[in-house]
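Q: Got one fold?
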Amino acid sequence: MPTASTADGGDLLDRLKAAGVVRLGIAGEIPFGYIDRNGELTGEAPELAKVIFKRLGVDRVQPVPTEFGSLIPGLNSQQFDVVAAGMYVNPERCEQVIFSDPDYQMLDSFIVRKGNPLGLRDYRDVVEKKAKFATGTGYAEIAYAVEAGYKESDILIVPDQVAGLNAVEAGRVDVFAGTALTTREVVKKSAKAEVTEPFKPIVDGKPHVDGGAFAFRPTETGLRDAFNVELHKLKESGELLRILKPFGFTEAEMTDLTAKELCGG
């Protein structure tokens, strides 16, 4: 039976303070949450978690690595206390967990040849210019291109952004679509390609922005609310950007989006 405190937002924060450690579910994804070459936990979400939980009176974080698809089941079966994996907030996930407000937003960008010879700025341009288009396996960008009118069978699917860069440099395609963050990082060493300005894809006829956040069990509203208070302080002071900057995040990824908006409520 739940105790009175559990029914009233949970007592997990008190238990974490007493234990002095919080267990973070991560999925081994750079730059979101991963174990580095020295065996240390890092990534934008764990580094942010370290700061926020310290402010909440919990000094240590402990990583619990798992597959991305196992993060929500693992959280709900108490294998860890919070998901710290830069997880996108969407209505389907909001039915299973509760989210903090997003600590970052993510727009799309294109990798194109230097000078952007076809003048490609968004998916409509790709369709109108009949550009040869590539994106990654399982990427959301496939649906964004199709919504703009690109034929799905004409899309070249490659494993990741490195393969996408190679395809653009070799002239096999005119453009590769990915997140603003991954495309920006991968073109840094390229002499032949550049990245376009970040933009919002159109989803269901409206400009769409994804946002990533921390996930908590639905009963733990007390911890989620306390986490949000500290997160908003970091946003207002500018410290959030300083924490995320080493992982490739810029002012363009800072956001005022709320979990409620992204959950569709």
